[in-house]
Amino acid sequence: MESELKYRIKDREMADALWDDECLLAIADPSTREKLVMKAVYFDTEDHVLSANNMAFRVRLEGESIFATLKWGGHSSNGFHEREEINVPVNGEQCFIDPPTDLFSESEDGKALVQMIGDKPLTNMLETRYLRRRMRVDLNDCLMEIAIDTGSIVTDMGEEPILELEIELFAGDVKELKELGTKLADKYGLIPEDQSKLARGLKLLKGPAGDPSAEVN
């Protein structure tokens, strides 16, 4: 189960201020502060069988590593997201073009994915390209990752900027996660973001009247 908070950031200057925030630096592990180029491709069938079942299939470059991710279910409210997810490392850039559907077959949900897709080809629905600045923080026996993302969601119907703060809980009480999020939101005027990057991209594809059918990222 993935548990995280998402907030919209006003501009790049605010993103820079968050990265250098003294309160975060005081609880951060300096060795974990890093900047990574992130590129993700989200796949679905032509008839959108995955998004219709609240599932997401993503292949993402994280620095020099490539991971395939399956996400499903979950919910979001006031910027707090919870969902199930599986991550597996993959080799080769071919996975950004034609990923195998059996990458997650060792899990029951991965087997369900294979059955759901059948012999339907997967297509590139949309992409995200952004710089991620991240650090791990330790607060009252809670281990969390702070991620500041700046970049773009790219679709055939246009682009939308990414300016987000994500705080993911790795271990500990979700109460500490929410308290840290509230503290940063109050300090910087952050806006809770209930839509994932995928949901925002799907909305962009559907046009102004569209309503995203996926809440996973």
Give a verbal description of the structure.
The protein contains 6 helices and 9 strands, in the order βααβαβββαβββαβα. The chain has a single domain (2-206), classed as Hypothetical Protein Pfu-838710-001 (Beta Barrel), CATH 2.40.320.10. It has 217 residues and is an alpha+beta fold. The chain is globular. An 8-stranded antiparallel β-barrel has the order 1-5-4-3-2-6-7-8. It has helices at residues 12-19, 22-27, 49-52, 108-117, 174-188, 197-206, and strands spanning 2-8, 34-45, 55-62, 65-77, 80-89, 122-139, 142-155, 158-171, 191-192.
Summarize the structure.
By secondary structure, this protein is α+β, with helices and mostly antiparallel strands. It is 24% helix and 45% strand.
Topology of helices and strands:
Layout: E1 2-8, H1 12-19, H2 22-27, E2 34-45, H3 49-52, E3 55-62, E4 65-77, E5 80-89, H4 108-117, E6 122-139, E7 142-155, E8 158-171, H5 174-188, E9 191-192, H6 197-206
Antiparallel strand pairs: 1-5, 1-8, 1-9, 2-3, 2-6, 3-4, 4-5, 6-7, 7-8
